[in-house]
Design a protein that fits this description.
Elements: H1 6-16, E1 22-27, E2 30-34, H2 35-45, E3 50-52, E4 60-66, H3 70-79, E5 84-89, E6 102-108, E7 126-132, E8 138-144, E9 149-155, H4 159-166, E10 171-176, H5 182-192, E11 195-198, H6 209-212, H7 218-235, E12 245-247, E13 255-256, H8 258-263, H9 279-283, H10 289-300, H11 306-321, H12 323-334, H13 339-348, H14 353-374, H15 379-387, H16 392-401, H17 422-449, E14 455-459, E15 463-469, E16 482-486, E17 490-494, H18 496-528, H19 531-556, E18 563-565, E19 569-574, H20 577-583, E20 591-595, E21 601-605, H21 612-627, E22 636-640, E23 644-648, H22 651-655, H23 662-675, E24 681-685, H24 693-711, E25 714-718, H25 727-730, E26 734-744, E27 747-756, H26 764-770, H27 775-790, H28 821-840, H29 848-867
Parallel strand pairs: 1-5, 7-10, 9-12, 10-11, 13-23, 18-22, 21-25, 21-26, 23-24, 24-25
Antiparallel strand pairs: 1-2, 2-4, 3-4, 5-6, 7-8, 8-9, 14-15, 15-17, 16-17, 19-20, 19-22, 26-27
Helix pairs in contact: 10-19, 11-19, 12-14, 13-19, 14-15, 14-16, 17-18, 26-27, 28-29
The protein binds adenosine-5'-diphosphate and magnesium ion.
Binding site for ATP: 606-613
Family: Belongs to the DNA mismatch repair MutS family.
Pfam family, one: MutS_V
């Protein structure tokens, strides 16, 4: 077999180190891909697959993208979770002997992208690392390379806890050791949908000593090193902006497991996975991208410390009351650039002069912002003002060095101000003087030759030239002018003295462009040393932005400041913050809630669609809002500070996302029961729905009893099992409440009002009527229900025979249809399967959608029978 060409050999050598990435191999103006990479990339990017000679008999697959538009293609692949290794020519092809030397200069991965065009500005982009240790503990670290922040947490409670912690965070990639058990690796990819990367060798890098200073735990040092080692390997550039990792004491925050994060739709909805319709969607009234990112973090980590909560609330109240001042603060904040990400890009060395001007302008707004804040008579807000330290030196450096409106490119000059650098000024003088001289030359030549249209011009190829139209050529003296270029109507000439000046001008310009670039890099390096100040500033600005956002949303939606109690939870006229916004017509019905040490379990009954789930989630959302320091949607709130919130939201709601199995339901219930404390909130919404009636009811009852007797968590328990309302007699701290519905002309009317006591009936059939099922069918269901309800508890519930036991003119008519005896008998058998099935339906365990589908099928069956 023939050998590959030397370039292909080089390709294969490099590719061997980047098996799990697309290798973008630079060839002239293109990045080319070969072999499997080419086939896969052609498919993913919808580009043409071609073939290329590679020295062997058969051509090899190839595809490519132009280097100047490569970013879009790279983004496309990285968004899909792939990695892309960028391989550049690292020597000048003109001077290279043999194959041009090539190297991978960067590995772009989902967690390490930095380019602003590849990032969503209102979202963090995390890369995480997970390390496991012999004592069974895990350490997770996650970093946002674009902002330089990292968080680290030790998890003792097992792998599930790792998933709960990482769930719903914007983590794109997780770096692990290759000996993490397969099964756990699979859970990471399945449950978190992330790209996995491996880093086995861990070496502590002295260069980054400073960011390890706060880690006194060897496991943490190892875990953070794993992440850094991987990032260094892939990025091959400076990481000066990385901050110390914030150690997360998970017990300092309200803990929400992954079920609750999902069920409560804090930052995205279950169905569409988007922000719209989530609590974040309602609350995010921030004006800066940094503020928006922080608000999301606050929402995911509500506080437990009452002093911290009150501090936030106090500031929110200050902003709330001062509408005018808040408005002008918002205006000023709007002109503050994304300082956090800018700091990252300064460290990485990919800012241009325009970015630095933005930085300067942002910093120049700060005194004004500071003044706004100081004008408040609110201590918390004044404190924020005091924490705003303007790095005036940065402003001074940039003010003296960079012109106000620089070009995008940093390699073509016109960046640095006159007077900033003596040598640069000399070059510029030379060039300007030269140009002045040329202007004078033009005048002189015109006079001497008497050609009015004579002009001196410049182009990149020929340099400076004297242009004379063909009609005037005869006026030129012999000998002095050397012909350079012929156009249709004119000739272009040079003279020795013009040539000489040109040399001087171009030299000066070239030197000044080069010097400007060097000066720019020097300025950027100077600014680099202020990165920590800029980051600190970004942090305070984000905080201010979040607090004003809370005030803004609280005022717009009539929220009230909550107070906190040790034992008593009272909410007057509480509303669901999201649903009231979605309805947006003021028709949301507010409801009260009360939980205390005497009554800590509320059992909620009421028809489908009446508002049980809404009422339960409302309490969780109000509690979370209170614990992040926001006002809450109600007239008055005295809240408890919950340590954990657990949710099990009804099968009905989950069916939509196709994730409901009885097993999941039980897992979630178990998770709540085994972790809740008497300071937790548990929401169990129609538990036991996923199995047969008696099973479900038995489990539901046992679970309520267990929570009541052993856990003492504040609990809301909605159920469709009416029988459970009797528990009020035996469980002393359980109280029945129900959502009121009324019957009006045979239809059910939902009032969405919570009342004391148990619901009188279930209205399942009424809901079926609302769904427009045929009247005959509804009437029949009523008959069956009556029969079931009249059957003695001790008797086994029998299938009703439609012909005999109950008067029924709905289904029976086709039985007495004059068919032959034998047929009739057969038919009766078939009918009774229909009846059996109908009778076995567990109406209360069905969602309206279920009911629709089932009845549709049964009706179809019935219709077929009528046809016979
Ligand atoms: P359930 O859990 O009892 O079946 P949901 O809580 O899912 O009912 O509520 C069903 C629908 O009723 C909601 O989507 C909402 O449109 C409406 N709803 C619920 N609570 C209220 C309320 N308090 N005020 C107005 N509409 C409500
Ligand atoms: Mg419900």
């Amino acid at each position: 077999m023939a050998k590959y060409t030397p370039m292909m050999e080089q390709y294969l050598r490099i590719k061997a180190d980047y098996q799990d990435a697309f290798l973008f191999f630079r060839l002239g103006d293109f990045y080319e891909m070969f072999f499997e990479d080419a086939i896969k990339a052609a498919r993913e990017l919808e580009i043409t697959l071609t073939k290329r000679d590679a020295g062997q008999d058969d051509k090899i697959p190839m595809c490519g993208v132009p280097y100047h538009s490569a970013e879009g293609y790279i983004k496309n692949l990285v968004d899909k979770g792939y990695k892309v290794a960028i391989c550049e020519q690292v020597e000048d092809p003109k001077t290279a002997k043999g194959v041009v030397k090539r190297e991978v200069v960067q590995l772009v991965t989902p967690g390490t992208v930095m380019e602003s065009t590849m990032l969503n500005e209102r979202n963090n982009n995390y890369i995480a690392s997970l390390s496991h240790f012999e004592d069974g503990s895990f350490v997770i670290v996650y970093s946002d390379l674009s902002t330089g922040e990292s968080r680290i947490a030790v998890i003792e409670a097992g792998f599930d806890q790792v998933i709960h912690e990482l769930y719903n965070q914007p983590i794109k990639e997780i770096v692990i050791s290759s000996n993490l058990p397969e099964e756990l690796q699979k859970q990471l990819t399945d449950r978190l949908r992330v790209t996995l990367s491996y880093q086995d060798e861990i070496s502590f890098n002295g260069e980054y000593r400073a960011i390890f200073e706060n880690l006194n735990d060897e496991k943490m040092v190892k875990a953070f090193s794993r992440l850094l080692n991987y990032v260094q390997f892939t990025q091959k550039r400076s990481l000066d902006h990385l901050k110390q990792a914030e150690i997360l004491e998970l017990t300092n925050y309200l803990s929400l497991d992954m079920y609750s994060k999902r069920n409560l739709e804090l930052t995205e909805t279950i169905l569409r996975k988007g922000k719209h319709g989530s609590l974040l969607w309602v609350l995010d009234k921030t004006v800066t991208a940094m503020g928006s990112r922080m608000l999301k973090k606050w929402l995911e980590r509500p506080l437990l410390n009452q002093v911290q909560i009150e501090n936030r609330l106090e500031a929110v109240e200050g902003f709330y009351k001062a509408f005018m001042e808040r408005d002008s603060l918002r205006e000023s904040l709007k002109s503050v650039y994304d300082l956090e990400r800018l700091a990252g890009r300064i460290a990485f060395g990919n800012v241009n002069a325009r970015d630095l001007i933005q930085l300067k302008k942002s910093l120049q707004r700060l005194p004004e912002i500071k003044e706004h804040l100081s004008s408040f008579t609110n201590k918390q807000i004044n404190d924020l003002a005091n924490r705003l330290h303007v790095p005036t030196e940065v402003v001074d450096i940039l003010e003296s060095s960079i012109i106000e409106d620089p070009p995008i490119s940093i390699k073509e000059g016109s960046i640095i101000k006159d007077g900033y650098h003596e040598q640069l000024d000399t070059y510029r003088d030379a060039s300007r003087n030269g140009k002045k001289w040329i202007a004078q030359l033009e005048q002189r030549e015109k006079q001497e030759t008497n050609i009015k249209s004579l002009k001196i011009g410049y182009n990149r190829v020929f340099g400076y030239y004297i242009e004379v139209t063909k009609a005037n050529l005869h006026l030129l003296p012999e000998g002095k002018y050397e012909r350079k270029q012929t156009l249709t109507n004119a000739e272009r000439f040079i003279t020795p003295e013009l040539k000489e000046k040109e040399q001087l001008i171009l030299e000066a310009e070239e030197k000044s462009v080069e010097l400007e670039y060097n000066l720019f890099v020097e300025i950027r390096e100077k600014i680099k040393s202020f990165i920590p100040d800029i980051q600190q500033l970004a942090n305070v600005i984000s905080e201010i932005d979040c607090l004003q956002a809370f005030a803004t949303v609280s005022e717009a939606n009539n929220y009230t400041r909550p107070t906190f109690s040790e034992s008593q939870l009272t909410i007057k006229n509480g509303r669901h913050p999201v649903i009231e916004k979605v309805m947006d017509d003021g028709t949301f019905v507010p409801n009260d809630i009360e939980l205390d040490e005497e009554k800590d379990v509320l059992l909620i009954t009421g028809p489908n669609m009446s508002g049980k789930s809404t009422y339960m989630r409302q309490l969780a959302l109000i509690s979370i809002m209170g614990q992040i320091g926001c006002f809450v949607p109600c007239d008055k709130a005295e809240l408890l500070i919950f340590d954990q919130i657990f949710t099990r939201i009804g099968a009905a709601d989950d069916l939509v996302s196709g994730q409901s199995t009885f097993m999941v339901e039980m897992l979630e219930a178990n998770h709540a029961i085994s972790n809740a404390t008497n300071r937790s909130l548990i929401l169990l919404d129609e538990i036991g729905r996923g199995t047969s009636t008696y099973d479900g009811m038995a489990l539901a009852q046992a679970i309520v009893e267990y929570i009541h007797n052993h856990i003492h968590a504040k609990t809301l328990f909605s159920t469709h099992y009416h029988e459970l309302t009797e528990l009020e007699d035996s469980l002393s701290r359980l109280k029945n409440i129900h959502v009121r519905a009324e019957e009006y002309e045979g239809n059910v009317v939902f009032l969405h009002q919570i009342k004391e006591g148990a619901a009188d009936k279930s209205y399942g059939i009424h809901v079926a009527r609302l769904a427009n099922l045929p009247d005959k069918l509804i009437d029949r269901a009523s008959v069956i229900l009556e029969h079931l309800e009249s059957t003695d508890q001790s008797q086994e519930k029998k299938v009703i025979n439609p012909a005999t036991e109950v008067e029924s003119n709905q289904l029976s008519f086709f039985i007495e249809d004059g068919v032959k005896e034998t047929k009739k008998k057969e038919k009766q058998e078939e009918d009774s399967t229909l009846i059996t099935e109908l009778n076995e339906l567990d109406l209360f365990a069905m969602t309206p959608l279920d009911a629709m589908n089932t009845l549709y099928r049964l009706q179809k069956l019935a219709k077929e029978k009528i046809k016979i």
